[in-house]
Amino acid sequence: MEESSNVHELTPVRSLLFVPAGKLDKWEKAENSGADVLCIDLEDSVPPGEKRNARSEVFAFLEHGSQNHPFITLRINSVESDFGKSDLEMIRELTKPVGGLMVPKLSESGSLEKLSKQLIMFERKTQLIPLIETARALENCRAIMSTNLVTGAIFGGHDLAMELGCSKDWDVLSAYRSDFIRSAGGLNLSLIDMPWFGLDDNNGLRAETLNAKRFGFTAKAAIHPAQIETINRAFMPTRQEIDDASEMIRVFEGAGGHAVAWRGTVLEPPVINQAKRMMERAKYFEQKM
Question: If DSSP codes are grouped into helix, strand and coil, which group holds residue 247?
């Protein structure tokens, strides 16, 4: 498949907070959490018998409610299901389009490409954030991530572990996380790690978030507002990282763009490009604070 040249970058994010469609009365608390993205969940958090009412409530909330958050997404139901098709009909009727759609239960890129074309046809160039949560989706991850309008992707390790019959421990899922990160190479996407489900284990949340950062993830999903501060702090470049990046750039440019030794390592264009991206990210989030 030829990769899309029309993919545009999602605004830098560190955290995404899920808000169940049936708990929109908690919206103010979600907005005050500091999460970079708020995602209203119409899928797993809503039982089948309640989806119709939840969809109506979400529509009314988005049309007439008071939202002050800059980036709101919707996790819809599978686009191959009747629930998902009804979700898309609701989205087309919105006069205030949401910023993004999280698309679950994918197995390959075809259904996402169809959705992308439909959004463009209806002049709703809503950003798409595929949820990679099945073995088939992981196999076809590069094609899924290369679809037009995709700006980020989420590693759905929980559902993947359930499908594979394995645990959600970091060491067990690390190989699958590596596949996910490798598939996104060069696409300039926001890469969001799975939520941490230990609500009373903040040390575990911090450790897993820092591991995700080391792997190449740029953000982590959350299921409770109390998790956001820890996630945001972990994904913020440290003062030492900022100082080191600044010095690397200065030394490399001082060498006229030639490879040069610095603190026992070699500075080359890929290293400097990564340092510049980190500096831009740090500057963006410092301006938000």
Answer: helix
